[in-house]
Amino acid sequence: MSLSILIIDDEPHLPHQLARFLKKRGYEVYTAADSLSGLRELQHNPIDLVLLDLRLPGLSGLEVLQQIRTMDAELPVVILTAHGDVQTAVKAMKLGASDYLLKGFDLEELLLVVQRALETSAMSRELRQLRQERSDNYHFSHIVGQSERMRAVFALVDKVARSDASVLIMGESGTGKEVVARAIHEQSSRSSGPFHPLNCAAIAQNLLESELFGYEQYAFTDAKKQKRGLLELAEGGTLFLDEIGEMPLDMQAKLLRVLETRSFFRLGGNKEVRINVRVLAATNRDLEQAMKEGLFRSDLYYRLAVLKIMLPPLRERPGDILLLAARFIEEFNRSLGRNVHKISPEAQQLLLRYSWPGNVRELKNVIERAMILSSSDELLPAHLPQEIVGNEKQRPASSLDPWDQWLNSHPLGAVSLEKITEQIEQHFIRWALEMTKHNRTRAAELLGFAKVDQLRYLMRKHGIE
């Protein structure tokens, strides 16, 4: 499909000359002899670029430009102007015009300006889309969970993102530490800057320093040219150091100096490099125990742990397992081209009873495997790996469903039935809203309500937004 250009100019011959030239170059061209006709064309046709004369009958070119900006803030507009109107053309640029041409221009010059404006507009749109996708993927509300512990994590991530302090994210392997780090970055004032992750356990100790600090040409035998390290590449953004507990002690001392001085030297260099980078770190180790054993510097720990976030393992928030599974099914439906809608009750019970030593990462892998093996719209126990199904076979026949266990438990003293009922209502309302992405009609159906008004009443009652 060819790109379309609208020419708004009241001269009798110029618009048609430009239109013929541009059509031969593959563009679809519309023309309008006055401002109102031009605005109507914009409303009725998909326009990719406007060539706008400054002097028009009715509204002036500047007024038309302002109208265009209210209709489409991103549409590229090139101003056509006479020599005496250069100052007005400059004013138009300040109002958002992409470029301007002095009348009497060469047609090849026109083509270059048109191509440049369209390319710049396309790149800007793509960049905005990529940033939006990245922001959508890592917004803290997309970290799935309805348990009390995860809601506390959401609230903390929201507060931490507004600060520029160092953050230490703790949790077992697979709990989503990098996802949380990206969410902090994307909700911070540094979101337009880069995010660079580095797994300290995945890089040989002798390479870790050059990865972080970079090196000068001829700093060592294979250093054929200068290389910037991640500390420089993350300028204006965030550096995420995963598995920080695996960093050797000598590197810990060098990292501490960077955090204290906000500067460093490349390997083999004598010029100090100053940086503006936020450092987030994560670990699955007990760093306090590592400090006692002399394996981790206490001064670095306190530099990194200005703010701390502890991510709970999946086994400690079983109420989130099916929510996460539903989210992964949604993701893999898109990436695998599938149309899976549900998990059978038997498979749900197996997922709920499993201990998930690999946490969220393991659950995601299990769901992906099941969707590849399934040939229907439902995931069954047969699609689950042996460690999950086998776990069930070894379970005593008298083993109860987790809900049955809760219902059969006996309180140690007096209870408030009203309070328990309120807690159950709140729990299931939040669950239904999370499952349906806050679609109240679908959430009401999920809870078995005949009318959505019943759900609205309970949401108001419990102060749920």
Automatic annotation (TrEMBL):
Sorted UniProt keywords: Activator, ATP-binding, Cytoplasm, DNA-binding, Nucleotide-binding, Phosphoprotein, Transcription, Transcription regulation
UniProt organism field: Thermosporothrix sp. COM3
Name of the protein described by the UniProt record: Acetoacetate metabolism regulatory protein AtoC
Domain of life where this protein originates: Bacteria
Lineage of the organism: Bacteria, Bacillati, Chloroflexota, Ktedonobacteria, Ktedonobacterales
GO cellular component, one term: cytoplasm
GO terms of molecular function: ATP binding; DNA binding
Response regulatory domain segment(s): 4-118
Cited Gene3D superfamilies: 1.10.8.60, 3.40.50.2300, Homeodomain-like (1.10.10.60), P-loop containing nucleotide triphosphate hydrolases (3.40.50.300)
A Gene Ontology BP annotation from the UniProt entry: regulation of DNA-templated transcription
